[in-house]
Write a structure and sequence with these properties.
Elements lengths: L1 E10 L4 E3 H5 L6 H8 L3 E3 L6 H16 L8 E5 L10 H9 L5 E5 L5 H14 L5 E8 L19 E10 L4 E8 L7 E2 L6 E2 L2 E2 L8 E2 L1 H22 L9 E4 L4 H10 L11 H4 L6 H11 L8 E8 L3 E8 L5
Parallel strand pairs: 4-5, 4-6, 13-14
Antiparallel strand pairs: 1-7, 2-3, 6-7, 8-15, 9-12, 10-11, 14-15
The structure holds oxa(dethia)-CoA.
Oxa(dethia)-CoA (UT7) binds next to helix 2 and helix 6.
Length: about 325
Amino acid sequence: MSMRIIGTGSALPEKYVTNNDLAELVDTSDEWIRERTGIGGRHVSTGETVAELAALACGRALADAGRRADQVELLIVATCSPETGIPSVACQVQSSLGAVNAVAFDLNAACAGFLFALHTAWAYVQSGICRNALIVGAEVLSKLVDWTDRGTCILFGDGAGAVFAEQCDRGGILSFVQHSDGRKGEVLRCDSRALTNPYVRGVMQSPWVKMDGREVFSFAVRQVPTGITEALKQAHLKAEEVELFVLHQANFRIIEGIARRLGLDADRFPMNLDRVGNMSSASIPVLLDELNRAGRLKEGMKLVLSGFGAGLTWGACVLNWQREC
Ligand code: UT7
């Protein structure tokens, strides 16, 4: 028993912010941002919530798959920027979609969140707990970013991407690896509310994203190729047999570094970060949706998905793009 993706969808906020717009806020330039990251612009929420963007992306993935909301059995939202602690974003999405028969919950693995959610769904489907799943990566990071910190505010964008997947006898997802290293949590963190109750008055730390960019950069270039190689080995495939590597869109230099370490040309690593920036858990499913809608995903094509980020967390998945049963 395996699981195949049969529909994709995405949603982006209306407001678009260019690098030149940011150069009016902080001491930066379009040239610096493009040269160091490859990012040219990003969508920024002016009111769209994580739940709204996720629901839009889910609706589009269901339409693409030709399935109804009441057929969904599992709904997982990967996010690290929910508006509410409770209820979960997934339950809000369930309600707005009318996915009345789904079990819904959120999962946070930062930029690797979509991969971790897809892996979880795969485990549910493989074990027979459910027959299908709607998996979403959705973020409004603009509310977690310090807009006076040029080291971080230039990187992130808001958006959501979703896939609908269902069980299949063979093919579909071929292998998965997941890793975490909590010892390196300090290199990318965002504090939550301080403990404040009648017995203690906690001091609020900075509520904004804080990052050691160089550390994250070298972790990604070192660990991601190892994870991909591990997943390929499990799937009995060589890197050369994979047509497209759909990676988390953090920085074009990270992606090129990973391609180099795998001994591959960067043209097998599609990118959209020039247009949408780093959308954390939404990066991979939004890019997958773009490729799907552009007709670039052909039946039987081998793909690798790989995400990495805060935690630290990273993972990779090898799949056979197989919409026909
Ligand atoms: O999803 C995972 C999330 N995290 C990431 O993806 C981050 C991964 N890391 C990176 O992408 C890169 O480390 C950055 C793009 C964040 C930074 O690039 P870098 O080449 O590592 O630059 P740096 O931090 O070493 O800074 C070099 C210089 C510094 O100036 P000095 O000290 O050399 O005078 C920075 O202050 O660039 C300066 N700088 C900037 N200058 C103009 C940092 N940010 C900016 C900026 N505009 N936005």
